[in-house]
Amino acid sequence: MSLDWIYYAISWILLRWHGLWEAIGIPETPVLGTNWAWVLAIVFLVVTLRIILFPVFVKQIKSQRAMQALQPKVKLLQEKHKGDRETLQKEMMELYKVEKANPLMGCLPMFLQIPVFLGLFHVLRRLSPTNTQKTLYGWTVEQFDSATHASLFTAPLASKFRSTTEELALLGANGTAVKIVAGILVLIMMATTYLTSRQMILKTGWAEDPQQKMIQRLMLYGIPVSLLISGSLFPIGVVIYWVTNNLFSLAQQQWVLRKFPPPQMAKKAASTSGQSGSTSARSAGKGPQNPVQSGRTGGLFGRKRAAEPEPNSPVVDTKALAPKPGAKPVNPKKGARPANKPQG
């Protein structure tokens, strides 16, 4: 299957944004060693795609909520079919089908962005002074030459950490500057990738389903580690795209998780106002938890501490005072007088 339509689409969006920044007045010449019109074009390519994919992101959140709601049923199935993995998987798939929950929906936005990433990688990899097909995918010769020599802090956008000496010579780049800029960007890419996954897991919690938990661990640890190797092969322009996408994801997830909190977070927030009252009620049955009690522990329905009954209280726990079977009788203290002395 040809991916030319993706290359054309990526090129069209990228060139439209570059033209807009030029029209606004951002200079074509480098400022601080950076061609900001091309850098911003890549940044807003991410913004455009994330706006397009926002409905998919909302479906991802809803799917995760549905999976969370099913965790008690999943746990029951795991206990019921412990040791029978085949039956367990069959029952779980049937449960997902009945409840219309898709465990793979959580990864859908990432899967949809893979073609975009590959398309941008292909487009930027073509930026070379030796490339004779400059007008491919809707580019003009002037746009192609301008993008070929565009840079970020003197490091060409088409260069990468592992660029060869010949490639750097064709781009007119300094190898040390390229390695420094590319290395810093790769580290930022790894960190933001980890934080994006960690943010979601901390808010929603680890899944009970082993398959879901395995996917969570893969996204949290496996992907960032793999970027240490693969990131050195990405052009700097692609790394800019990835970092921007991660930062957008962090902000978007934070907004969604605040506006539509997970079930356990919503319950926690709803019970915060009555937490002190319920704590006092529990402590009344367990004895005093703190010698200094809050003023709100008193009130109606006997909410005073059970360890300090009223002196003349008629309520006596006879079971607790009764001697245990087989215990020796306890003599009264010296000097104590019987409660009812017989009359002489």
Supply the key terms:
single chain; 344 residues; mainly alpha; two-stranded antiparallel ribbon; 14 helices
Describe the structure.
Helix content is 62%, strand content 1%. It is mainly alpha-helical and 344 residues long. The chain has a two-stranded antiparallel ribbon. The protein is elongated. It is built from 14 helices and two strands.
Question: What's the topology here?
Answer:
Elements (H helix, E strand, L loop, with lengths): L3 H21 L11 H17 L1 H16 L1 H10 L4 H15 L8 H18 L15 H8 L2 E2 L2 E2 L8 H7 L3 H30 L5 H21 L5 H24 L3 H9 L3 H12 L31 H4 L23
Antiparallel strand pairs: 1-2
Helix pairs in contact: 1-2, 1-6, 2-11, 4-5, 6-11, 9-10, 9-11
In brief:
With 344 residues, the chain is mostly helical. The protein has 14 helices and 2 strands.
**Shape type:** elongated
Strand order of the largest sheet: 1-2
List the uncertain runs.
276-308
Count of runs of 4 or more consecutive helical residues: 14
* Proportion in helices: 55-70%
Radius of gyration, whole Å = 34 Å
Largest sheet: number of strands, sense, barrel closure: 2 strands, antiparallel
Strand content: under 5%
Report the mean per-residue pLDDT as an integer: 77
Structural class: mainly alpha
**H-E string:** HHHHHHHEEHHHHHHH
End-to-end Cα distance: 117 Å
Tell how many strands the DSSP assignment holds.
2
